[in-house]
Amino acid sequence: MWGWFGGGAAAQKKKDSAKNAILGLRAQLDMLQKREKHIMNQIEEQDQIARKNVNTNKTVAKAALRRKKTQEGTLDKTIAQIATLEAQINSIESANINRETLAVMEKSSDAIKAIHQGLTPEKVDEIMDKINEQNALSDEIVNAITANPIGEQFDDAELEDELEQMQQENLDEQMLNTGQVPFADAVHKMPTPSHAEPISSKKVAVEDDEEAELLKLQAEMAM
Questions:
Q1: Segments forming the whole domain that contains residue 197
Q2: How many domains does the chain have?
Q3: What pLDDT band is residue 87 in, cutting at 50, 70 and 90?
Q4: Where does residue 196 fall: left (phi above 0), alpha (psi -120 to 50 degrees), or beta otherwise?
Q5: Residue 136 and residue 139: Cα distance in Å, rounded?
Q6: How is residue 179 annotated by DSSP?
Q7: Can you give the pTM of this predicted structure?
């Protein structure tokens, strides 16, 4: 509550002044609240005296009622004073909170100002341009590295020829496994120019069908 911001004797004096004011008001408020309870007890006591003597001793009963009325008037004034002191305490506390809030806001403003010192929109644009420039340079470096692979390079044409040779060998092996040796040997032994294309799968399938029919016919004639 009393943590005022700012330095110097003036700030300390304001802090002590507000604190002392509230302490004095609370002490007075405590006294008035005790007085309120005491007056209420007296009013209750005089009321009991009046009731007790209302039929037997009217003089005593009237005197008790007069004292009761007087105490009630005093009670009303005391209650009003209590309300005034409570309002005053609330006002001082609110003023103190406002003062501390403004002090915090002022400190925050100074902090933001210090953070932004030397920082302008032009400066931000300059920094962003530098960042973008470095990112672009990084991309160029990566592209340069990946565009020049390390190690021995091979001719694609040679690789294609080797692949075709492997395909032909697989085809010859499949034909041998099916028992069609003569035809397979003929195909395997045929000279193949270096520029000739491999036999297509469709042509091989047709020749396989013809060979199968020929074998079937030879079997029938043997019977």
A1: 157-222
A2: 2
A3: very high
A4: beta
A5: 5
A6: T
A7: 0.47
